[in-house]
Specification:
Keywords: ATP-binding, Cell membrane, Membrane, Nucleotide-binding, Transmembrane, Transmembrane helix. This is Macrolide export ATP-binding/permease macB. It is a multi-pass membrane protein. It is found in: Cell membrane. GO terms for molecular function: ATP binding; transmembrane transporter activity. It is built from 5 helices and no strands. By secondary structure, the chain is mostly helical. It starts with a helix and ends with a helix. It is elongated and about 80 Å long. The longest helix has 44 residues. The protein has one domain.
């Protein structure tokens, strides 16, 4: 089999594109699963804290205050998850470097990881936050 450099370059470029699509798909699925996890945590939090929400609303908290409280909590959970992911990723890169593999570090992907974590928290935390902010104080106080 005779090959020339241009066909080798095309093959390498095609493999790179395939790998990019594959890794992008894995990342998208991971974000979706992580987002569903954040949403479930926040929905459980709203359910368990219904009386607290009712007391806050009965003592003057506005819907916006309740909404912001739960959005901030969802963002906090996502930020902690993003930080853990970045630390584990940098640790894996350091381990690969220690094993003799060539590893490059860049600030852009780290920033993108944090941005994706925050966006996931904001998007998937909105529904539970909205549910909490729409509770009626009388109904929330009477629940147990």
């Amino acid at each position: 089999m005779i090959t020339n450099m241009s066909s080798v370059r095309e093959d390498v470029a095609a493999m790179g594109k395939t790998m990019t699509v594959f890794l992008g798909s894995v990342a998208a699925i991971s974000l979706l699963v992580g987002g569903i996890g954040v949403m479930n945590i926040m929905l459980v939090s709203v359910t368990e804290r219904t009386r607290e929400i009712g007391v806050r609303m009965a003592t003057g908290a506005r819907r916006r205050d309740i909404l912001l409280q739960f959005i901030i909590e969802a963002l906090s959970v996502s930020a902690i998850g993003g930080a853990i992911g970045v630390i584990l990723g940098l640790g894996a890169a350091a381990l690969a470097s220690w094993a003799g593999l060539s590893v490059g570090y860049s600030f852009g992907p780290v920033l993108l990881a944090f941005a994706c974590a925050f966006a996931t928290g904001l998007i998937f935390g909105f529904l539970p936050a909205r549910k909490a902010s729409r509770l009626l104080p009388a109904v929330a106080l009477s629940s147990e």
